[in-house]
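Training component of the fellowship. As part of building independent skills, the fellow (R.M.) carried out the full modelling exercise for a liganded target. The chosen ligand was NAP. The inputs are recorded below so that the supervisory panel can assess the work.
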Amino acid sequence: MTHLDLVIIGGGPAGLTAGLYAARANMSTLLVEQKDLGGEILNTELIEDYPGIESITGAELSKRMAEHALKFGLKVETYKPVKQIRVDEDRKIVEFADGSTISAYAVIVAVGGEPTKLGVTGEEQYHGRGVSYCAVCDGAFFKGSDLAVIGGGDSAFQEGLFLTRFAKKLYVVHRRTDFRAQGILQDRLLGLDKVEAITPATVKEIGGDGDVKWIEIERDGRTERVNVDGVFVFIGFKPVGRYLFADHIDHDKNGYLITDQYMQTNIPGVYAVGDTRAQLAKQITTAVGDATTAVLHAERYIEELKHAEQEFPSAPKAKVAEAAARAELLVFSPGTVIVREGEESDRLYMVIKGEAEVTQRHPDGAEEVVNRVGPGEYFGEIGLLADAPRNATVRARTSVEAMAIDRATFRRLLESSQTTADEVRQVAKERKARSLRERAG
Ligand code: NAP
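Fellow's submitted model of the complex:
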């Protein structure tokens, strides 16, 4: 099985941004997308709220984003649907519909969602025969026709504006009188002569003679028939990310994945970004921001995990992954005291970069260097094991980057493997013996 640092699932703006950052960080990464690169924006005619680009088609922005990531070396496989993601110790196993699998330390889920259906009679029957969820894809089939868009959000208004190029008459059917679309979109669309709002109205049925010919709506308690040749439904969408997981993944009542501020889900090393994540705004700008944060955190998570596995080689990988996920990354400038002799022993530190000096104080007050610790080594275990105050001071000699895990996480790690507990005790014993020798000498 191929093993990578990162798999990105979904090739919309969020996935492509994650891919760009991962490629630039030299992470071994694969982006998979089950359709064409671009995601939802491929279904959007004009994008006019992406800073720095006044107006661009969805297709063009997708192309530019993809080319940008590919230029920096991102590997992409399109038409590769993911069947399931499962966790296996410290790895995430991504199973594809064709039966192949890939393992990675981290996965970024950028799969967006699918259009919400009205759920009325005729909708399914006439899908593709007048019922559509994408104006950009199907609008041109309706030149000179009477059309209806259903919904009152940005999508309904954006897509509605696009449809006015083809429609003779466009009805905007919305269940409330107030629209939630941005004011500028409302002004543009509703200001057109050929556009008529029908509110508050709910669609009850879609009917025709093989192709759509009418919708039945209920307004003020009365049922009316509105003759149209096409019905474009934009009433939101359902996030699909959670259905990819074999294990439970935290999500809200609408199915959006819940993350922390680093875009990490409750599964360490699994990130959710863009429209499949529980958040306020589903915008290209927020998707791009989510993805940036997720990659930067994933990069750190993977580095920390690799370090922790190196430092505790005998511990079960799942427990090390748990410890790494709980670790706090700390940076100390040269000369900073990281732990002080006599203070409470509350954490274990694993050195990632730099060197620290371990000193002990003689009864006469003089301080003596008894050890040095560098990358791949940990310190702070003596006090934690003995449940005693720190027996030495550790000071950064150079700039030091270290991962700190709390007492409870350290305990769980030791309890998970007798060999690990023995190894840590052995390190502590040797260090104590060494400091006694140094002090005696
Ligand atoms: P949305 O903002 O959630 O709007 C959905 C609309 O459909 C609402 O007006 C809602 O009515 C209506 N609706 C929901 N369920 C319905 C049902 N069962 N029957 C009838 N009507 C129903 O969804 P969206 O327009 O797809 O936008 C999704 C996100 O993408 C938003 O955050 C939006 O800002 C963003 N977006 C932005 C742009 C842009 O140009 N910046 C373009 C497209 C989308 P109520 O209002 O009564 O709830």
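The panel noted the following from the submitted structure. The first strand starts at residue 2 and ends at 9. The chain has three domains: 3-113+238-311, 131-233, 327-440.
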